[in-house]
Amino acid sequence: MAIFKLSWHRHNLCFGDHKTLVMGILNVTPDSFSDGGKFYQFEKAITHGKKLVKDGADIIDIGGESTKPFSKPVSAEEEARRVLPVIEKLAQCISVPISIDTTKASVAKKAIKAGASIINDIGALQLDPEMADVAALFKVPVILMHMINTPETMQLSPEYYNVISDIKKYIKSVIDFAVKRGISRSKIIIDPGIGFGKTVRHNLLLIKHLAEFQSFNAPILIGTSRKSFIRNIYCAQNKNTAMLNLNQLIETGTQASIAACVLYGAHIVRVHDVAATCATLKIINAIKNVSIKNYQNNPI
Question: Which of 66, 85, 160, 285 fits a disulfide with 166 by CB distance 3.0 to 4.6 angstroms?
Fold first, then answer.
């Protein structure tokens, strides 16, 4: 696996062979699928953001608009109202980079001015014609994710000729688009978009064949945390769902999926439970990096 070094503004991130980065999710929304409303209040959001860093997060991802299936968009003004105070305050008291999870150029621009330094765009610069200009102007890393249509419609019978090759073609096209618009190739991160216009089978195939996306020579971010495909797998295999502790199983399934993603090539994992993920990564990275070459000199 390649080693990546991202250096911009006052931030430096080095990861790859021996380190997987953890992006902690901070949703400042009343309706996100997992924690909607939980950190909607300002003080709770700040406290949780600090906790994510203390638990080991390398990046904090702040979003002010739910992107769960069938969710409706909010205005740029409302989205900015939710995220800007939180970004501004957290930027003053944490050292790790903050990413703004938005598809709107105006929100991204204001967020960067408030202290964010990464753009996480689930629309891959395609939903707002000015988003690429903002990323190029501020010279910040940008995360380009694959999604069919919009969150409101993405789960309406998603179909692919070949889910791996189709998404690879899309990612190539948005990388080319970003570079043409002035974004440095070295600042592009890709995300195959687990759960964004995919069936359970599509998601599982993406994880299993994640290594194919290494051909782009760009950091691969993946977000499986608490996604519905995990719940659906458990429910499909157990008819009496009333007997299941689904919340506990979803957390267990999340860590299993994270382990698989890292073994198959993920460089950054986007998660809700940072502490549990860091514990999982210690074991997975130890397995990935153990070598038999020096076994006699370093017996285990």
Answer: 160
Per-residue pLDDT tens digits for 124-134: 999 999 999 99
To the query of whether residue 10 is one of the catalytic residues in this protein, the response is no
19 catalytically annotated: no
Catalytic residue among 44, 270, 288, 293: 270
Q: Which fold has domain 18-287?
A: TIM Barrel (3.20.20)
Positive or negative, the CA dihedral 72, 76, 82, 83 is positive
Of the residues 104, 187, 227, 231, only one is catalytic, namely: 227
Q: What whole-number distance in Å separates Cα of residue 134 and Cα of residue 91?
A: 19
Give residue 32's pLDDT band: very low, low, confident or very high (50, 70, 90): very low
Residue boundaries of the structural domains of the chain: 18-287
